[in-house]
Design brief:
seven-stranded parallel β-sheet, NAD(P)-bd_dom_sf, NAD(P)-binding domain-containing protein, NAD(P)-bd_dom, alpha/beta, globular, two-stranded parallel sheet
Length: 221
């Protein structure tokens, strides 16, 4: 399977790239990135690294470079507190993601024999109801929920061309966090980053029965 990977210089996205290289089911990965990747990664023949500065637009020239991609693992985003303000968090998390999904649906999906598969790295407790009064991690949960709903709306309108899965890790730990930390993570709904990356790739390749995959279920993939 040929896939698109975003967020490749981030904690999760960089691990998705490494696992894609190791995964025999992934035949090629188009890596969209704003920043250069480490040379030992970027030179890998299994990757096509494309520097893309504006994730709100997908010009025809870029989409032609992505021709043949059958799915995408999207890891751009994060907690709202990681951004300068909520407006920036919403732009990066919502606007960028939905712009890509629409572009891939219109330009890449029609050339495939099956629907394009989009796997979105969301978060635990994502909330679709934008008017809900939340006391914990309000902005992050509402933004993640807005992205999920937007993606599923696109999928609903393009059932023969576009499929979406949203994974909701409760928290993500480094793969070499140590035995005690790893055991604690598993009992509290957290997941090791390499496990998360492998799970998202498996979902891209094989699909999954549930469109929203909660933290405990992720641990079983």
């Amino acid at each position: 399977m040929k896939i698109i990977i975003t967020g490749a210089t981030g904690f999760v996205g960089s691990e998705v790239v490494r696992q894609a290289i190791a995964d025999e089911a992934i035949t090629h990965a188009f890596v969209l990135t704003r920043k250069p990747l480490p040379e030992d990664i970027s030179k890998n023949t299994k990757l096509t690294v494309i520097e893309h500065k504006d994730f709100s637009t997908y010009p025809a020239e870029l989409l032609s470079q992505l021709a043949g991609a059958e799915g995408c693992v999207w890891t751009i985003g994060g907690r709202a507190t990681q951004f300068p303000d909520v407006e920036t968090a919403r732009k990066v998390s919502v606007d960028y993601t939905l712009a890509a999904a629409k572009a891939f649906t219109e330009a890449l999906a029609p050339g495939l024999s099956r629907p394009f598969r989009f796997v979105f790295c969301s978060g635990k407790f994502a909330e679709w109801d934008q008017n809900k009064n939340l006391k914990m991690m309000k902005d992050t949960r509402l933004i993640k929920g807005q992205v999920e709903k937007g993606l599923f709306d696109i999928a609903e309108a393009n059932k023969d061309k576009f499929e979406v899965w949203a994974v909701r890790p409760g928290g993500i730990v480094r793969k070499y966090a140590g035995l005690i930390n790893a055991l604690t993570a598993h009992t509290s709904g957290f997941i090791a980053v390499d496990h998360l990356a492998k799970a998202m790739l498996k979902i891209a390749v094989n699909g999954h029965a549930n469109r929203i995959i909660e933290a405990n279920e992720l641990l079983k993939i």
